[in-house]
């Protein structure tokens, strides 16, 4: 702008018709501020020259303003020099929230070029630039909320000579920025006893030393005797210790709130030790006292308190006097000593182990003397446990038609698997002696009465033979019934089962089931559909849940038990399906298997 003004002034002076020459002396007077704030007046005296020049080297003007220059001679001539200059506008910046993030909106004309810089404005130390870019036209920039810190500032300026830069720091009071600052802060170890707090911004914090016991309790502050120290970030600091110790840690606090704690020297000095920290206080007349730093406070060594330090007070005092303790700090007012406690711990554990061995020996002798009584007690306990489990399990009476030997093996596998749920299963396979002695009908009546009195359930296991028997019993009375095996419990039970279904007493007492590979679903007579009928093994979880009733486990556990039962049934199921024409034992598995003559 300076060069253009000078050229326009020269051309205007030429137009006045005055010859150009350099002045011999020219001393412009100091600018005078006129009553209007935005108006300045400058007077230049040219006493012995016909032409002079005025250079405005530092002309202050606001960005976006219009500058008018009006020059004339004194006394005034007819021609005057007027010049108008439009300065570039300052980019308009707006900071707004975009969810958890922050949006920077810069509203400028499309052709205007400007610079944008993000930097950390540190009170302690120089400005640290973070991001810089030259941009054109309006821009929208999104900042992640994790990048916000209190000292993050934004600077924007037009890319023009001598342009004024505008800076704002909008996150100084943002709670997210303060949380991010403490998350970004790191304590660094600088051996032998130095440390440094690295952070992008200055922190109004204090640092102290503390003593971390081996048992993982709270870190015990060493203030006093050691003083607090103000933290200067990104600068090496040292505490006045004579020697380092792995139990010594650094705490960084702000406004009485603990923010950071690190046992900085643990990596170089090894793991924490079971040492007792003793604080020595020295008086004016060379008389001192020792106390042990514990969670309850500083316990005098020769006291009657019920703490570990008080119980071992005399031994610890002897350790300090004999030089077995490590001196960590020393001055005219006191000292700090770290005394190892390993030897006292070993002595205590030796006594504990000896007492345990003696107790074990006494118990072993008592067991030898009362072995018979112990065996009897264990036997009774085992019987009580079994009796309690049996009392808690539900009873189930399993009725089936003995179509052939392979089907009987399948029924036996199902009954054995149901006993593991637990269920108390009654089946004629396991009661052949009682069945022969009492007869099939009497045995069924006794088992049915006991099962229903105990709140159990009767399971009707349908097969092709069982379906044929049911149809035979349900046929017209004009047909004469066929003779059946007197030991067939299923055939004998139909005389009692059918009346229960015909009179509506079956729901809640009976459950039906069939193997889906042996019998189609529509083969079960409609009369028995008044109770739940399950297809096995596809509906095993629902079948097991109905059998167990209110004692059924959760669905996940029930599915696991159904899987166990399915695996137990699979070998018996495979034996029931043989290729056509293969020899078999017993009666066939076809639809006419139940017809007996």
Automatic annotation (TrEMBL):
InterPro entries attached to this UniProt entry: IL-17_rcpt-like, IL-17_rcpt_C/E_N, SEFIR_dom
UniProt keyword ATP-binding present: no
SEFIR domain span: 393-545
Region feature (Disordered): 573-597
Keywords: Cell membrane, Glycoprotein, Inflammatory response, Membrane, Receptor, Signal, Transmembrane, Transmembrane helix
Keyword NADP: no
Membrane topology annotation: Single-pass membrane protein; Single-pass type I membrane protein
Localization terms from the record: Cell membrane; Membrane
Gene3D superfamilies: 3.40.50.11530
Membrane spanning stretches: 349-369
Protein's UniProt name: Interleukin-17 receptor C isoform X10
């Amino acid at each position: 702008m300076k060069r253009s003004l000078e050229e326009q002034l020269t051309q205007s002076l030429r137009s006045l018709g005055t010859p150009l020459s350099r002045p011999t002396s020219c001393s412009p007077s100091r600018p005078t501020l006129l009553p209007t704030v935005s108006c300045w007046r400058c007077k230049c005296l040219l006493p012995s020259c016909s032409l002079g020049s005025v250079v405005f080297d530092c002309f202050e003007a606001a960005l976006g303003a219009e500058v008018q220059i009006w020059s004339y001679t004194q006394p005034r001539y007819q021609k005057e020099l007027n010049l108008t200059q439009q300065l570039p506008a300052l980019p308009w910046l707006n900071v707004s929230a975009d969810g958890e993030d922050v949006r920077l909106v810069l509203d400028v004309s499309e052709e205007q070029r400007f610079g944008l810089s993000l930097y950390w404005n540190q009170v302690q130390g120089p400005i640290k630039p973070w991001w810089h870019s030259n941009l054109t036209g309006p821009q929208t920039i999104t900042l992640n909320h994790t990048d916000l810190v209190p000292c993050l500032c934004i600077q924007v300026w037009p890319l023009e000579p001598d342009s004024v830069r505008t800076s704002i720091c909008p996150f100084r009071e943002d709670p997210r920025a303060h949380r991010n600052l403490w998350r970004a802060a790191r304590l660094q170890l600088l051996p032998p006893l130095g440390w440094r707090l690295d952070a992008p911004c200055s922190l109004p914090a204090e640092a102290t030393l503390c003593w971390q016991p081996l048992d993982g309790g709270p870190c015990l502050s060493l203030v006093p005797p050691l003083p607090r120290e103000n933290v200067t970030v990104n600068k090496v600091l040292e505490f006045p210790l004579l020697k380092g110790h792995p139990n010594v840690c650094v705490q960084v606090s702000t406004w009485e709130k603990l923010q950071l704690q690190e046992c900085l020297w643990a990596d170089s000095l090894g793991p924490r030790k079971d040492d007792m920290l003793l604080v020595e206080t020295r008086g004016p007349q060379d008389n001192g006292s020792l106390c042990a730093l514990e969670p309850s406070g500083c316990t005098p060594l020769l006291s009657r308190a019920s703490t570990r330090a008080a119980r071992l007070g005399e031994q610890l005092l002897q350790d300090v006097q004999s030089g077995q303790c490590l001196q960590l700090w020393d001055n005219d007012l006191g000292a700090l000593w770290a005394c190892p406690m390993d030897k006292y711990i070993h002595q205590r554990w030796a006594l504990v182990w000896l007492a345990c061995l003696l107790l074990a020996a006494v118990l072993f002798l008592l067991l030898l003397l009362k072995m018979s009584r112990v065996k009897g007690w264990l036997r009774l306990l085992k019987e009580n446990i079994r009796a309690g489990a049996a009392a808690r399990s539900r009873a189930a009476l399993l009725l089936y038609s003995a179509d052939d030997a392979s089907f009987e093996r399948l029924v036996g596998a199902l009954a054995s698997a149901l006993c593991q749920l637990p269920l108390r299963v009654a089946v004629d396979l396991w009661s052949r002696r009682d069945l022969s002695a009492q007869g099939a009908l009497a045995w069924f009546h006794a088992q049915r009465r006991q099962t229903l009195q105990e709140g159990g359930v009767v399971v009707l296991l349908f097969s092709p033979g069982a379906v044929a028997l049911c149809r035979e019993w349900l046929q017209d009375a004009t047909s004469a019934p066929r003779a059946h095996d007197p030991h067939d419990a299923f055939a004998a039970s139909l005389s009692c089962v059918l009346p229960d279904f015909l009179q509506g007493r079956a729901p809640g007492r009976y459950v039906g089931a069939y193997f889906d590979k042996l019998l189609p679903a529509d083969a079960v007579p409609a009369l028995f559909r008044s109770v739940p009928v399950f297809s096995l093994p596809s509906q095993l979880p629902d079948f097991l849940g109905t059998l167990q009733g209110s004692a059924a486990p959760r669905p996940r556990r029930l599915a696991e038990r159904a899987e166990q039962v399915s695996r137990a049934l699979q070998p018996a199921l495979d034996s029931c399906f043989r290729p056509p024409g293969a020899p078999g034992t017993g009666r066939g598995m076809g639809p006419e298997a139940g017809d007996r003559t």
